[in-house]
Amino acid sequence: MKWNAFRSDLATDAGEAVRLVGRLRWLMLALAAGLILACRALDIALPWLLVGQSLAILALANLALAARLRRGAAPLVVLRWGLLADVAALTELLAFSGGAANPLASLYLPPVLFAALLSPGRFAWLLAGLSIAAYGALFQWHLDWPLHGGDAAYAFNLHLAGMWGSFALSALLIAGFVSWMAGQLRRQGEALAAARETQLRDEQLLAVGMQAAGAAHALSTPLNTLTLLVDELLEDHGDGALAQDLRLMQAQLQSCRQTLARLKHGSEPDPGCAPLFATLAERLEGWRSLRPDVRLAWQAPEGRDPLVRLDPAFWPAFFNLINNAAEAGGGELAVSASLSGSDLRLDIVNRQGCLSPAQLARAGLAPLESAKPAGMGLGVMLSHATLARLGGTLSLDNRAQGGVHARVCLPLKLEGA
Predict the structure, then answer these.
(1) What is the dihedral of CA 269, 273, 275, 281, to 10 degrees?
(2) pTM of the entire structure?
């Protein structure tokens, strides 16, 4: 999913780049129109009809290319046609206004730069070759720049001012576009790093799943043996203090057998719609019966209890966090639930222990070093991956007064909403 999203972001960035070039083209057309008005005010005699039709054709081409992009045309194809139109229109304008002597000839550079950045390879070299050839042809085929009353000094000063203006415009275009491209590349790099991190986590989870399948097969036989032994012991010691412990062992073994059965069949059956907070309370009560050594404080909001359809994959992720909190918190934890709009928020708090900064930074992305005697550090990573698949989030924070606070946010589809 992350890789598909990353490829989609690349396509979106290409389309955004083409739209940005289109907006720059409109800006250049507006500046050209202002320059024409300035030339008219200075009584410079140019073939205005020919100059106007060049700008009009480029404006129509920009409209047509934008329409093609909206209809789903490939962004790079639209970009290439647009840059070719830029070079053709600039060549025509220069041919009608002094040719190679026109200081605006340096505006050949931005289209070549855009091609090199957005479409590197043969097209960029083709556009560079066409620009060089067009610039060279302007030495031979062009209309002369009109002198103002034959004043060569005035024309030269105007030429110098035009050189400065074209340099400033080219510098602004290049600096602005390259800065934008650098920002896009940085964001793509960050997205690629996140995608790689997610892929690494998914590979680790796949390895865990394969190991879990093997463990389920290996554990079924000893669990059956232990169940038979406990049943026989209950028949022989049906009364007394030992019977209570044996019934607890029987319940624990039955829970293990059910867990292995769910693992074998892939997941729990879908229970359908159920009251949200009542279901949470029922599940926690069942967990409490399996962990009588843990003091659990459960708090649900007052008021209506909405009907929801919880994905069966949510429960293993939830109880991973509950078990972690119970074992890290010295046998005491608090769980509270609330609903914000259609988002479920669960707060799981244990009042002892803390996570190091490195553990907080890596929580959910890789197995954590566990302080529990038999802990493998996989619980948080498995919960994080499951909640992310369900569209939710998991955050861990150290409490100022001691302990760890885990917050789960999960979007729900409320029945009847």
Answers:
(1) 10
(2) 0.45
